[in-house]
Each structure stands twice: as C-alpha cells, then as structure tokens.
Design goal:
The complex is a heterodimer of chains A (476) and B (141). By secondary structure, chain A is an alpha+beta fold. Chain A is built from 16 helices and 19 strands. The interface between A and B is large, with 48 and 40 residues.
C-alpha cells in the first residue's frame, strides 16, 4: 500500500479522508509494520463501506485487516436506522457469528504431558471436523427452529452443558428477536446434521497452554495463570449461516437498487435497516447467531465428555464466547450523545470496556474478554476490552492473525505432511483430515499475530491479558 | 489459450474460480469443476450417479452464475456428494443442469476444505473478442 496516500493521525491511526462518494473517513488502526503490508484492496473496500448510507463516524479497519469481499475482513461499521442506515449481508459475511470460545480446564501443562497423544487421538475421534463428518444430532426442521430461537440456551436445556455456561456467552447464549420463519427451508436442511460440528477451513479446536500473563489483575479475574491449560474452539454457524447469507444477497442487491443505493461492489449488497428485506435479514441473521452459539455449546459438551474419559480431574468451565462476524444493535456515545446503532463487525471482535452493562457481574471490572485466534503453529491471545476502544471503534478490536497469503500460494509453498512433522518437533500435535487443508492453513500464510495484538494494544482498542501457545490442534 | 477449461486464481482470504468455454453453458459447467477442485482433486471423484440441479433464471447473467455455483454448493452439502462432470442448459426461465458424481468418502476423496458460498466479489460473466465465454467469482471457504 502506498502509505503516503494515508494521513497519519496518531501513532496507531491512519486516515483516508472522505472523497468522492465517501460520507465519512476511513480509520485504519495499525502500526508501521502492519501498515506497510496492508493491501491496497483493504483501503478500497473500506472506502466503499464509508460511502454506504447512514454510516456513523468512520469506516474502521482493524490491525489484522485483509481483503474481503465487499467489506474488508477486519472491518467495523456502524449505521443509524433513523438516518437511512443500512444493514449488509456481506458486512456480516457467510459464516454468521463465527467466533471463538475458550474454556478453562483446571489443568496445568504437567497434567496433560503424559496423555498428550491419547488426548489428541480422542479429540480427533470425538470432535466432528472437516468436510464429510456429520454431528451426532440429526434434527428435523421443527427442532432446528428451536435451535435458531434458543441458541446455546437450547443446547443447555437439552443437557449439553450447564446454565452457568450461559453467563459467559455474549447475549447470555441466546440472541433475542431471532425469527426462524425468515430462514429458508434450504438453510435449515443444510444444518440438519451439522449442529455440533467444527467445519473446515480455518476452524479448529485447540488445547493451549498459557505461556505468558501480561496483566495479572485481569488474568486473575478471568481465572487464568501461567502454565494453565485452556481449550479454544473456533467455528461458526455452519451450513445454515452460509445459506442465510446466500439467500439474502440477491434480495439485497435488488433492494439496494430500488432504494437508490449505488453499490460500487455488488458484494456490498445492503438494504435500509427499516426496509422489509433489512428487517427479515436481521431476524434471520440472529437465527444464524443462535445456531453458532448452539454449535459451540454442543462442541463444549463433546469436549467435556472426552476429557471425562482421558483426564477425569479436568473441570471445563467457560472463560468466554465471542463472535466476530455479526451485526448487533448497540448503544454508543457519538459526539456526546447516546445513539442506537447497528454495528457490523466483519472479522472483528466485540471488545466492550469495563463496566459495560452487558458484561457478567464478575467480569465487569475487567472488561470483556476478547479471544484472538492465532494459527496452528503460533500463539493465540486473550485480551480485554478498554474504555478507549469504546470511543475509538464502537468497542471493537481485531479477531485473529489475518491472512497474508492466499490458499493457492500456501498450497504450493508448504507440504501438509512436512508441516505436521515440523510442528511436532516444536511440541505441537496437529490432527486434520487433509494434508492439503493443513498446507492451506500454514502458519506462514498469516500475519504475525503478535504484531497484530501489539498494534491493537498500542491503538488502545484492547489490552493484552495472556498469551496462549498450542499443544494440540484438531483442524477442521 | 484453450477454449474450454477451468482454473483457480488467488485471493488473499479465499480463492477465485474461473471457467471458460465456447458457450455460456460450457463455461458455467467448467466453473463448477473449478469449484469442486477447491474441495478435492477431480480425478478422485467417479461420476457414478446423476442428479439434477436447477435454479431460477435471473435477468442478470452474473447473478445467475453465482446462483448456479450456490446451487451446486447446496447439492454437495445436502446430498453429501461430490461431482466431477456437469452439463448445463440455460433457458430464459430456468437453469437446468445434470451433474455426475458420488457420495463423499473422506478416505477416498481427501477433501481439503468445504466451500461456504459463491460471493459476488470479482463476479464476471463475459464474452471475449474471440466469442469465448469467461465466468468467474471468489468463493468463500
């Protein structure tokens, strides 16, 4: 990216001033290292988002941003329904409510060392991962509707987990105002045997160790310390979410045209929030959120079952569950006034600061836990939302390492088998159905996650709490 | 350049699929092969069983192409099948295709990744100066 096109506003903020059809500026949160590598397309896509009706303050770009389709991945944009604001299916993405859930285990690295191989085998066998592995549950359409309305709460009611789990999930595990009648029969059919499955691509389940505590106070509130073993699950709403996006995109292209919204890229397809299509998408997307929450809840149950067999002394409790592909109605202070906004986070994590009313009471003082997934071979991080992040980017921050290289390139550069071997030397066990899939997810195909979280912290979007390194990775 | 064929092209997060052929139908069929090749090597899939895949015609050729790939993705997902041969017919009202393939077998096909959807990103349906059709878009994996 030609950095000279950007105006540096502060140490960690770079601005594209409004020009042409842009209604607001683009604000990129990054440091010199990341801005030097940022893709020209990211700037173009963020500028396109800045041109959408009803956008408030700025089109924000997180430090892990890379080219997406329509919206950049790592994009945050808030819209005001009362000022012609829009909702965009592309601004949420195809994997609605894809996110990360982390579980504490009550174990230390020493506890798992003697059973590492056995645990890896049990997880690889017991967690449905990759294409062609269905879940244990086969649900009829009417039962799917219960999932779509109930989210993780449905799963807990069915015996997959405990009510205490729900306290540590965004929306207390159940997104309100989800309306299954706006989800197509095709979407429901696609989900019938996918509840409780990991999916493929960059999705994974990892057993991790806490290798560094960066903020001891917050770590204590979150209940983690150095040497602890944590499990992180990265997955989303599976076929149902993909199909909801697929179903609504053409409708939104038509709605945009009839509402007189010019789309520089059709993937930006959107509808006024107040329109019928806008409202129906919102109701359907919330079903997608619930589907993802239920999915991660069932996977948690499977994890507990496996640990009961392999390491019965483990006690798996939720640290937090956070989604990074969503549109949520939230109240934010804009120019001193509280406004109700539809905040799109595409490959960006909600990161509410301390004392936010939506946080569970025991976490309120610390701020919201933010779970940042790395790659198979590198670190993941736990961050905490900050007060400054609330005003900088609607309480949002990065979501992962962010890809730096295409799958096609990665596949030619690395061999899956060799990668598994070299990671084994580093003490990381990888289990995946396909070597090609592993090669496409090679750690080297991503940005350096440490750079990303450092820039996130420097920008004030969130605060580093702990660093996690993988021990076992079950790849989707 | 070959007149009929398919290829992948790079996109940072995902992957582009491109089909080309002397007719729009042939190019659509080739792009569906490119789509399947994102999942696994085509040589591994035996065209044992035939299924019909249909979608509503759109006024817009590009949107029809995205709908076609999404219909293939839907059939792969709900039938748990992979396809290695396609024949496409497009009328003003409908796109009607036949696809040949078999049930997904993880041991046999080694699927690398699932395709979530065809996006409208980089979506093109074009006829070049020689009259050949080129169709393409980014697919989300």
């Amino acid at each position: 990216m030609a950095v000279e096109k950007l105006r540096r506003q502060s140490q960690s903020q770079w601005i594209i001033e409004p020009s042409g059809k842009m209604r607001v500026p683009v604000v990129i949160f990054a440091d010199e290292r990341l801005i030097a590598g940022i893709d020209e397309k990211v700037c173009e896509q963020a500028a396109n988002v800045a041109a959408l009706p009803g956008i408030v303050t700025a089109s924000c770009v997180m430090p892990d941003a890379h080219q997406g389709y329509g919206f950049p991945i790592g994009g945050v944009a808030a819209f005001d329904a009362d000022r012609g604001g829009v909702i965009s299916a592309g601004g949420v993405g195809f994997d609605i409510s894809c996110g990360v859930r982390s579980l504490r285990t009550g174990l230390t690295v020493d506890d798992i060392e003697p059973v590492r191989e056995k645990l890896a085998e049990a997880l690889a066998r017991g967690i449905p991962a990759g294409l062609g592995r269905s879940g244990e549950l086969t649900l009829s359409t009417s039962r799917i509707d219960e999932v779509l309305e109930g989210g993780a709460r449905w799963a807990v009611d069915c015996g997959y987990g405990t009510p205490a789990d729900l306290e540590r999930i965004e929306e207390k595990g159940c997104m309100a105002q989800a309306r299954p009648q706006y989800v197509s029969p095709q979407a429901k059919k696609r989900q019938s045997d996918e509840v409780g499955t990991l999916g493929s691509g960059n999705h994974y389940l990892e057993v991790q160790k806490v290798t560094e505590v960066c903020d001891a106070n917050i770590a204590q509130i979150y209940g983690i310390k150095e040497g602890d073993v944590v499990i992180s699950i990265h997955c989303g709403s599976r076929g149902l979410g993909h199909q909801i996006a697929t179903d609504f995109l053409p409708q939104m292209v038509k709605q945009a045209a009839s509402s007189g919204i010019e789309l520089p890229d059709r993937e930006l397809a959107c509808a006024p929030i107040s329109s019928r299509v806008g409202q129906e998408y919102l109701a359907a997307m919330r079903c997608g959120v619930n589907c993802a929450l239920a999915n991660r809840q069932v996977l948690t149950h499977l994890c507990r079952r496996i640990f009961d067999q392999v390491l019965p002394k483990a006690s798996l409790t939720l640290l937090y569950d956070v989604s990074h592909n969503t549109c949520k109605v939230e109240e934010h202070c804009v120019d001193g006034k509280l406004r109700t906004l539809h905040v799109h986070r595409k490959g960006a994590t909600r990161a509410f600061g301390p004392n936010h009313p939506s946080l569970p009471p025991d976490l309120r003082k610390a701020g919201q836990p933010v779970l940042i997934g790395g790659t198979m071979g590198t670190a993941s991080y736990i961050l905490a939302g900050t007060e400054t992040g609330m005003s900088l980017a609607f309480g949002s921050c990065c979501h992962g390492a962010g890809r730096a290289m295409s799958r096609r390139q990665a596949k030619t550069q690395w061999q899956g088998k060799e990668l598994v071997k070299s990671l084994a030397h580093k003490g990381i066990i990888i289990r995946g159905a396909s070597y090609r899939g592993i090669a496409e997810e090679a750690p080297g195909a991503y940005k350096d996650v440490t750079w990303v979280v450092d820039a996130t912290e420097k920008a004030g979007l969130a605060k580093k709490v702990a660093k996690l390194e993988p021990v076992i990775c079950v790849k989707g | 350049m070959k007149t009929t064929g398919w290829e992948h092209y790079s996109h940072v997060a995902d992957i582009g699929v491109r089909g080309f052929g002397p007719t729009r139908e042939a190019a659509f069929a080739q792009a569906a092969l490119a789509l399947t090749a994102v999942v696994c090597d085509l040589e591994r899939i035996e065209p044992k069983e035939q299924v019909t895949i249909e979608c509503d015609a759109e006024d817009d050729a590009a949107l029809l192409f995205a709908s076609w790939l999404n219909a293939v993705i839907y059939e792969m997902a709900t039938r748990n099948m992979l396809f290695s041969r396609f024949e496409v017919a497009i009328s003003p009202q409908r796109l009607c295709a036949r696809a040949w393939g078999e049930t997904l077998d993880v041991e046999k096909h080694h699927p690398a990744v699932e395709v979530k959807a065809a996006t409208y990103c980089d979506l093109k349906v074009q006829q070049n100066d020689q009259g050949n059709w080129v169709v393409q878009c980014i697919v989300d994996v």
